[in-house]
Design a protein that fits this description.
single chain; 171 residues; mainly beta; 5-stranded mixed β-sheet; 51% strand
Length: 171
């Protein structure tokens, strides 16, 4: 039996799907059974498997394959997968009552563990600033979204409606 290798990403984020594919070959036969151990207490028994790690850490993966003639081969891939935490996206606006008479809104990033920011103001305008401001040009309800990414490439998104009114608000 020729134990070739498996294919999987070497880093992932908590909750991200990882596809494992066995590429082992057998001379004069074929593989009938696969036994994966993902190092986090979860196992699977198919050639191609999607696995989701629910916690951070460095995980070793092992694979046992069995051929149609009973040959067994086992291989351990030590420290194969690094799983990282996701950032937590969050923001606030400097006003809860923007109006067409006072349409500028400043946003403050309240995210945890973010290193890049991508704002979508629901107007077609976007920004990569950490704490941007925008002047809304019309009344309406705008879905403002913030996508943050950390240094490991993990991301999170938070969205909030901003209603721009046609009159000054009375507080």
């Amino acid at each position: 039996m020729l134990f070739r290798s498996i294919y999987a990403m070497e880093k992932a984020c908590v909750g991200e799907e990882i596809k494992f594919i066995d590429l082992s070959l057998v001379e004069n036969g074929y593989i009938t059974d696969w036994n994966w151990d993902f190092g986090d207490g979860v196992s699977a028994s198919k050639q191609e498997v999607i696995h989701i790690y629910q916690q951070t850490g460095i995980f070793s993966v092992s694979l046992e394959v069995i051929s149609n003639v009973g040959c067994l081969q086992n291989k351990i891939y030590p420290n194969m997968i690094n799983v990282y935490n996701n950032p937590i996206a969050n923001f606030s606006a400097d006003t809860d009552f923007p109006s067409i008479f006072n349409p500028e809104v400043s946003f403050s990033d309240k995210s945890v563990d973010a290193s890049t920011w991508l704002w979508d103001f629901g107007t077609g305008e976007m920004s990569a600033e950490q704490n941007p401001s925008i002047t809304f040009s019309d009344t309406g309800v705008y879905m403002v979204s913030l996508m943050v990414t950390n240094t490991y490439g993990c991301s999170d998104k938070f969205s909030k409606e901003i209603s721009v009114r046609d009159r000054k608000s009375v507080v």
